Recover the amino acids of this structure.
């Protein structure tokens, strides 16, 4: 119910919210979309005084319930834009709700770019970093490792600045905080001079790629590949960094539309639906896909190469394991799919990332390989994901916080060496659990 008090702080009755993958939905008690840090602080104080919890949402691209709000849902998307630029250090300060796809236009006038990006740019910067979004590249860590400072609203409604000079001991926790420590309102990122990427996409064989994986990873700046289940076909993507003034050879608009929009999305959705109605056709469909998808060379601005359009809805699980374990783990997944007789239409994505020092990073103090499995959002993902997770646990796997997994705090503390230190910071900054929800209680403890 709207009261004078709720209206003053900008709260309205909640309406049903759903995430992009349609794996989570909730109707919070109240919701708000603040446009200033002061408004965020007022909402937090209001909630705390009434023993209500507060959870932030951005673009809703997490597949887990990490953003699920029972009491107060706070949408940060109006806290956006470029707030400051430090050109001598190539650093920029952004509003927490700034969408990743807006960054190229914001950074271009200053000749800057993000050092690395994932293949989706629909997330907010706060949501992406708080859940551990990463790209690929043996020498490049995840997006949160680029953070050099944050400003957050804490559980008592006060403003906390964390940087290399202010509360620096909190940086390894705050860069990738799962939304458990406070509400991020500003982030300062370490950027790099703008650059181009020379992209080579080629089909290859399953065994060929796994046997030579270390050489492929070391040969280029950014390497990844996709394996189509029920086939020996792999699509490799090798990207090499070039200076910003190198000659561009972008994909033509017609070719880009056909490859990315039609083949990469519309046809994939059609094939997923055909596979649901006639599962026996899936292996043949996948074999066809390996022959028609992914064979091109081009050079373009970094963000144009890193990012791909994703319009076909799916659900995803991704695990980080020691990089050297990728070949054995992927062969185990292939054996699992074959032994269970499953028909899997979505390709499996494999990437790598450098170690970093963020406490809850999937690459915390470990050069990591990532294996991501997907299912069409209308398919039942449970049995497949649980089976893959069991394999990943055998390799001391760490689940991506924004992607579906079934782990709890006890099991996660075994693979995240700083899990207890993070929980101690949570106890310090949010002792009354203003920012909790059932997901956070599961992965961190109540």
């Amino acid at each position: 119910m709207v009261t004078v008090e709720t209206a003053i702080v900008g709260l309205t009755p909640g309406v049903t919210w759903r995430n992009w993958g349609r794996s989570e939905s909730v109707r919070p008690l109240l919701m708000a979309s603040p446009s200033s840090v002061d408004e965020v602080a007022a909402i937090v104080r209001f909630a705390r005084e009434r023993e209500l919890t507060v959870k932030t949402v951005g673009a809703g691209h997490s597949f887990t319930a990490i953003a699920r709000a029972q009491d107060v849902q706070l949408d940060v998307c109006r806290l956006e834009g470029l707030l400051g630029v430090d050109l001598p250090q190539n650093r920029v300060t952004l509003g927490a709700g700034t969408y990743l796809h807006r960054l190229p236009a914001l950074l271009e006038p200053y000749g800057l770019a993000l050092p690395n990006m994932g293949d989706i740019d629909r997330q907010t910067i706060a949501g992406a970093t708080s859940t551990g979004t990463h790209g690929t590249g043996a020498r490049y860590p995840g997006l949160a490792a680029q953070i050099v400072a944050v400003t957050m609203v804490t559980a008592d409604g006060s403003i906390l600045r964390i940087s290399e000079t202010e509360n620096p001991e909190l940086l390894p926790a705050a860069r990738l905080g799962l939304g458990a420590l406070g509400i991020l309102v500003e982030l300062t990122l370490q950027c790099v001079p703008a650059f181009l990427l020379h992209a080579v996409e080629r089909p290859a064989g399953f065994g060929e790629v796994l046997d030579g994986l270390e050489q492929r990873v070391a040969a280029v700046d950014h390497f990844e590949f996709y394996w189509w289940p029920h086939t020996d076909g792999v699509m490799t993507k090798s990207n090499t960094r070039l200076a910003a003034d190198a000659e561009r050879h972008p994909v033509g608009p017609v070719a880009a539309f056909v490859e990315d929009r039609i083949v990469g999305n519309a046809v994939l959705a059609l094939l997923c639906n055909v596979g649901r109605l006639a599962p026996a056709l899936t292996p043949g469909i996948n074999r066809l896909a390996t022959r028609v998808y992914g064979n091109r060379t081009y050079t373009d601005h970094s963000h144009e190469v890193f990012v791909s359009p994703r319009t076909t809805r799916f659900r995803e699980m991704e695990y980080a394991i020691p990089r050297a374990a990728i070949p054995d783990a992927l062969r185990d997944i292939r054996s699992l799919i074959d032994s269970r007789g499953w028909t899997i239409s979505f390709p499996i994505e494999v990437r790598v990332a450098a170690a970093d020092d963020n406490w809850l990073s999937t690459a915390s103090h470990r050069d990591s390989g990532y294996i991501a499995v997907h299912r069409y959002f209308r398919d039942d993902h449970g049995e497949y994901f649980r089976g893959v997770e069991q394999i990943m646990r055998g390799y001391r796997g760490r689940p991506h916080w924004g992607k579906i997994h079934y782990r709890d705090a006890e099991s996660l503390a075994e693979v995240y060496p700083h899990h207890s230190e993070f929980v101690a910071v949570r106890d310090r900054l949010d002792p009354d659990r203003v920012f909790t929800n059932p997901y956070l209680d599961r992965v961190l403890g109540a």
